[in-house]
Structure formats: structure tokens, C-alpha cells
Amino acid sequence: MSACWQAEHRGLLAGVWQTAGGRRTRSVRDVRLFQIQQPWHRALTWADGVVLLGIVAVIYGGVRLAMDAPTTSVGPAISLAPVHLPMYAGLSLMRMTAAYLLSLLFTMLYGRMAAHHRQAGQVMLAVLDVLQSVPILSFLPVVLLSLSAVLPQRAAVELSAVVLIFTSQAWNMTFGWYQSLTTIPKELDEASACFRFNGWLRFKVLELPFGALSLIWNSMMSWAGGWFFLMAAEMFTVGQRNFRLPGLGSYLQEAANQEDLVALGWGLLALLAIIVALDQLVWRPLLAWADRFKLQMVAQDYPPTSWFYDVLRRAQLVQTVVRSLLYPIGEAIDRYTLRHSAAPLGEPATRRAPRAIKWLLIIAVGLFLAYSAWRASQLLVLLSLAQWAEIGQGVAVTTLRVASALLLALGWTLPVGVIIGTNARLARWLQPVVQITASVPATALFPALLLTLLQLPGGLNVAAVALMLMGTQWYLLFNIIAGAAAIPQDLKYVSALLRLNHWQRWRTLILPALFPYIITGAITASGGAWNASIVAEHVEFGNRVVSTVGIGATIARATAGGDYPLLLAATGAMVLVVVSINRLVWRRMYNRAEQQYRME
Questions:
Q1: Whole-number Å distance between alpha carbons of 446 and 455
Q2: What Rg, from alpha-carbon coordinates, does the chain have?
Q3: Is residue 391 part of a domain?
Q4: Who contacts 585 (Cβ-Cβ below 8 Å, separation ≥6)?
Q5: Does a structural domain hold residue 540?
Q6: How does pLDDT run across 213-236, given as a tens digit for each residue?
Q7: Are 292 and 340 contained in the same domain?
């Protein structure tokens, strides 16, 4: 595979040296560092309709469970004494870790299947669009009350918190992993076919190394998103039932509710300590390790470093464990997969289900969706015209806020992300700062920010856009940093040899290289903004409730008041709008990135 890259870059550099050596038969605009191919895919498909019916069925099931569930209150009182913070932080860290491992497993399986099975991938991506746009509060009745029906109450609440954190972590990781798999250069695909790799070896040798950098940066973003929604996952209200778990999120929420700024400061300090420790002990070592997988012929002047990674590499105990345990396990897996391949190497097995079974499955799913849609419609007819008008107005207003937040986020994350991603020395200082800033739950700071913004013209409308921006910008920033860091050093030298000015360098190298990452960030950022609208448009702190017009405020009020028909209708309307935007705008641009901006 390295030979493929050497051949490619030799050809590219040969053309550059000819141009730099005096042959001016081609202009700068004729030098293309990225392949351009042909048009976009279809925007809307039949899969969207099936998925929307499915999400209506799931939400209806949760609403029905919520309406029939008994009224109970679960959870201990949350103490604001700082002495309890270590225990609370440990419990939250365990929930975050469990949710991340679940997200990683989901990402690897779901993203890979969507990338390798194009027809199924259309449906799977539509499902992903729906799931990442459903607000975390709308998952509550479905997750909590479904689990409560089969598990003890405390176990159900604990598992619900993990699943809810999972819903704030998994989607951007899956989109980033899918984007990496669909933009692997064709020569590397051909090389893996020449070596007759089976699925496991292809994943181990090609796919995971190629997508490692994007996966690590999106993992950082997932942890930041998990911290952002930790307060909502550990303390929430469904109808008249108040659920809470001891943890850092519930500590911060209780401090904000009681307007105890001292306790809020202690909670934020504990959160910052965890974030810095994770940066030094996990993320920075992973980035230093993943630098080896960058596709380039020339090493960076200042590659990423980590003192902890250096300690691990030099520790004989670690080396002994790796040589005597990990390597043999990896080789055993390799031998097992080679012996038990369902098809010859390089020829994936294709098993077709009998036609009768396929049609029976389609009919069964269709009948289930039709029945669920009919039952949901019986619930929706309970809404008045005024409530439907409120939903329509709320969707329109929230759409404008989301668009404003996305444009503001892109305006500053693009230059800052490029600076961090292309300057390793600066990244060493700014990377932990970015992680800390992204991980601080804006909902904990929002009451204090709101008191200031309410005095300004626009009031809560401006404050809502500000909080959406806090929940949106980091998806873009982390993806842009990953894309900028993945630009090969030799292509940077090529642009220097061509003497491209600042604008030409951005137009011919940086923007084409970043385009797939920007679209991935924009898709997940828009979903994050819609999710953030729940806490941005309806704020409760102390004895005050501040609300404005918006679909997020409608969902928050419906959840808190147990108005399940309104919750179903508002969530369905939000999902419909978000999926339509994703399929008509972002998905087209995603397909264009996959087809036109591949480094080959």
C-alpha cells in the first residue's frame, strides 16, 4: 500500500517539479490536488418515509408506556457538600465510559455496514439522520419507561442514563467513521484486493488506520457532548415523576436550581480536573500514536507528542504485556478469520435470503408500521388547532435560530480549526483548552448568562441562539481540526513549491481537503443545535421559568407537563424538518464530498 502512495506522490511531485522548473504549460488553476468526479445522488428516497413511520411508532410506544406507567419518584437527594464530589465524579465517569464504549461499538458496526452495503446504507443513513435529530428529552419516555417494565427501578434509571448519554455521543462518531470509509483512496482499495484481505484484515490494516485520526477527534467531541447533556441524563422530570441519580451532572443541576454559585464553582472545578486528566492520559497519547497513520511521504516538522505515551512506550512492563499478550491475541484472531472466512480472501460472501422470507419480513414490518401510525394518529387527533399552530410557528422560528447558530459557528471554527490542525506546536497548548471549553455544560452556566442577556434587546431570542451556538460550534471545530491535521505534509510542500498565495492555497488545497469534514461537522452540528433548542428555549432555574417561541420550548413543556400527544406531535414535526434539511441539503453535499474530494 505504501508503494501505491509512493507512486501517486512521485507522479504528483514530478508534475510539480516540472512546473517549478520552468515549464509553464499549465497554470496554477490547472493543478488539481483532488480528483473531481460526477454528480450528486438523489436527495429524498422511499427510505425516509419508512424511517419516519418507524420513529413515529417508537415514540408512540414510549408515549403509551408513559401514559400507563404508575406515578413514582426515584432517586436520592443530591448533597451540595464538596466532600461528595469525588464520588459523584466517579459515578458520572463510569456512566460516560459505558456510554462511550457502547457508542464505539455502534459506530464500528453501523458505520461500516452503511459504507459497504450501498442499498442498505441509504436506509441506515436515513435512520441515522432521524436518530441524531430526535431531542434527548424525547428519548426519555421511550428509554426509561421501556426499561422500567423489565428491570428493577434503580437499574432501569442507571441504564437509561447510559443510553441517553449514548444518544449524545454516537451519531457524530458514526458519521465521521462513515465519511472516512467512503473516502478511502481507490488505489488503497485496489491494494487490499490485490492482497486478498478478508473483512477483518481490511478493517485492521486499512480502514481503522485510515479513519483513526477522524475517529479520535470525533471521540473527543462525543465526550464533550456527553458532558454537555450529563445534567439532563442524571436528573430529569417526566410528567409528575422526578428521576435523579447521584453524579456530577445532577450536582451541577441542583447547584444551578438552588442558585448556589459556590457549589456550582466546585462542580465545574471537578469537571475541569477530569477533562484535563483525560486529555493528558487518553486523548493526547492517542493522537501521538495515530500520527503514524497519516498518509504522507514527508514527516511533520513538529509531530504531536505526549509525555504519557512516551512513558508507556518505554515501560518494560507495558512492552512485555504487548509482546506476550496483545500480539498473540491479534495473531490468533488473524489466523481464525483466515481459516473461517466464509468466502475466499478478497471475495466477500454474498448470501441471499429466500424470496419468501424476504417478503414475509417486508410485510411484517409494513403491517407493524401501519398499525403504529394508525395508533399514533389516534393520539394526534386529540390536539387542538391552536396546538398545531404552535408547533408550526415553533418549527419555523427554531429553524431560523439553528441556521443563525450554524453560520456563526462556521464563521469562526473554520479559520481557528485550520490554525490548530496545521500548527502542531500551537495545538499542544490549544487542544486541552478547546476540550475544556467544549466540555463545560453550558446549561450549568446558562442561568448566569441568561440574567445578563435578558437585559439586552432580543432577550431570550439572543440567549437561545447563544446556547445553541455553545452546543453546535464544537462539532464543526473538532471535525475541521481533524481534517486539517490529516492534510499530508508533502501536499503542503507542493503548495509552497508552486508559490501559491494565501487565497490560492485555501482554494486548491485546504478547502477541498476539509470539505468532507466540514459537511460531517455541519450534519452533526445541526442535530446538536436542534437538540440544544430544548434547553435554550425553555429555561428553569431557581423559581423562575423563562420561555420563548420555538419547537424546543414546546417539547420541554410537553415533557415536563406530561402532555404526551403534544410531545409526540412536536417531536415528529422536528424530526420531519431536520430529516428534510439533511436529505435536501447536507446529504447532497455529503455525496458530493464522497465523489469529488477524495485524495487520489
A1: 14
A2: 25
A3: yes
A4: none
A5: yes
A6: 889 888 988 887 788 777 777 876
A7: no
Residue 445 has pLDDT above 70, yes or no: no
Alpha-carbon separation of residue 21 from 14, 162, 357, 366, 599 (angstroms): 10, 60, 66, 66, 25
Task: Determine the 3-state secondary structure of 486 from DSSP.
Answer: coil
Nearest-5° angle of CA 41, CA 47, CA 49? 120
Rounded Cα gap, residues 2 and 9, in angstroms: 10
CA nearest to 160, candidates 59, 253, 236? 236
User: In 92-227, where do the E strands start and end?
Assistant: none
Give me the helices (H) in 460-509, please: 460-485, 489-497, 502-505
173 and 318 in a common domain: no
Q: Residue 349: what pLDDT? A: 41
Angle CA(547)–CA(552)–CA(557) in degrees, nearest 5? 60
Residues 251, 323: one domain? no
Rounded to the nearest integer, the mean pLDDT of the chain is 75
Q: What is the pLDDT of residues 62-75, one digit of tens each?
A: 555 555 544 444 45
Residue 394 and residue 460 in one domain: yes
Domains: count for the chain: 2
What is the C-alpha to C-alpha distance for residues 201 and 180, in angstroms, rounded to an integer? Answer: 17
Do 464 and 398 contact (CB within 8 A), yes or no? no
Phi, psi of 585 (to 5 degrees): -115, -65
CA atoms within 13 A on the CB side of 303: 17
Rounded CA separation 597/37 (Å): 8
Asked whether residue 335 falls in the same domain as residue 409, the answer is no
Q: 314 lies in which domain range?
A: 307-344
370 part of a folded domain: no
Clarify whether residues 461 and 326 are in a common domain. Answer: no
Q: Based on the domain organization, do 507 and 495 belong to the same domain?
A: yes
Top pLDDT among 187 and 150 is at 187
| Residue 408 sits in the same domain as residue 480 | yes
Classify residue 363: in a domain, yes or no.
Answer: no
Q: Convert the pLDDT of each residue in 406-416 to its tens digit.
A: 999 999 999 98
Please name the residues in contact with 285: beta carbons below 8 A apart, sequence gap of 6 or more. Answer: 306, 308, 309, 312
What is the value of pTM for the model shown?
Answer: 0.69
